[in-house]
UniProtKB/TrEMBL annotation:
InterPro entries: DUF413. Residues 95-119 are annotated as: Disordered. It comes from the Bacteria. Belongs to the MaoP family. This is Macrodomain Ori protein. It comes from Reinekea blandensis MED297. Residues 109-119 have a biased composition (Acidic residues).
Length: 119
């Protein structure tokens, strides 16, 4: 891993998907979270085209992002893991699914006299 690859003055954060940080998410190991925080801005800039590759390693990373090769080093693997995680749709199961707020949980037949006629 080249020392001058993936350098960025800005620490990478994603408070939308990881409001408590990458290290507390349970998705990444401590080392992965540190790599993502330190180099994630460079990964994002390279992947989006805001930054041109400065080293051979960054050129390979760009090829990976464009789908020309599989993830082979730590930078590529952590970026793949991050992208896969934020691409997932989270679904929630509610015990009241499909029931509107105005509908009662059970029908109320206490005022219905038709039940009195049944013998």
């Amino acid at each position: 891993m080249a020392q001058d690859s993936f350098q960025s003055a800005k620490q990478f954060r994603d408070s939308k998907h990881f409001p408590y940080g990458f290290g507390r998410s349970g998705v990444f190991t401590t080392r992965q979270a540190m790599l993502l925080e330190k180099h994630g801005q460079a990964y994002d800039d390279l992947a989006s085209g805001l930054r041109t590759p400065q080293t051979a390693e960054e050129s390979q990373f760009l090829e990976f992002c464009q789908g020309q090769r599989t993830a082979q080093n730590d930078h590529e693997k952590i970026w793949l893991q991050y992208r896969q995680h934020i691409g997932r749709k989270t679904s929630y199961l509610s015990m009241e699914a499909g029931r509107g707020k105005s509908q009662p949980a059970m029908a109320d037949y206490s005022d219905d006299d038709s039940w009195d006629d049944i013998s």
